[in-house]
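Deviation from plan, reported transparently: AR6 complex.
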Amino acid sequence: MSEIDQRIRLHIGDITKLAVDAIVNAANTSLLGGGGVDGAIHRAAGPELEFECRMLNGCKVGGAKLTKGYRLPVRHIIHTVGPVWQGGDKDEAELLASCYRRSLECAAAKDCRTVAFPAISTGVYRYPKDQATQIAVGTVSAFIGQNAVPETVVFCCFDQQMAELYQQALLRLAERG
Ligand code: AR6
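Because the crystal trials were delayed, the predicted structure below was used instead.
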């Protein structure tokens, strides 16, 4: 097992229950909450989160902004905005990779050693799950290969099917060396 494999973990469950340094939120450009994982994070963190988010003036697609964790067992929440899938020729892959890179940069800037990501854009934003997991794994492993922090990245999957896609993507990456 390579050093990078040891720094990537899979978890099946609700990301709001994870006690890590930072979790990533799959937000929208307003940063004012919504459905899916965004709604779950805002509900669990409490109304203070939306209050801080209001000060941030939104976020562009592919960008990331950081807040405190409030009632969640994390120091920080990193809010990123994934691309809406429009068929694949609207820079979706580059924008999704940018979400992972910018989020990891935010985490590193605050010395967050363990960071958990949901599968950004794979719900309401309809990004094909197999492609999204490959981008997630490729971008995260490239980043941690060049940076000591975060030490550990958790891909938090809502269900077993998503965990299997991550496993396949990790296997493919290991095969490529
Ligand atoms: N923990 C972990 N993963 C979750 C959770 C959870 N509690 N809830 C859902 N997922 P989505 P998007 C998974 O739709 O596609 C919001 O309204 C889910 O199974 O939350 O980036 C925002 O405000 C899926 O695999 O995010 C935006 O408007 C993944 O998280 C829009 O949705 C992402 O699904 C963003 O859409």
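Residues 3-173 form a domain with the Leucine Aminopeptidase, subunit E; domain 1 fold (CATH 3.40.220.10). We consider this an acceptable substitute for the interim report.
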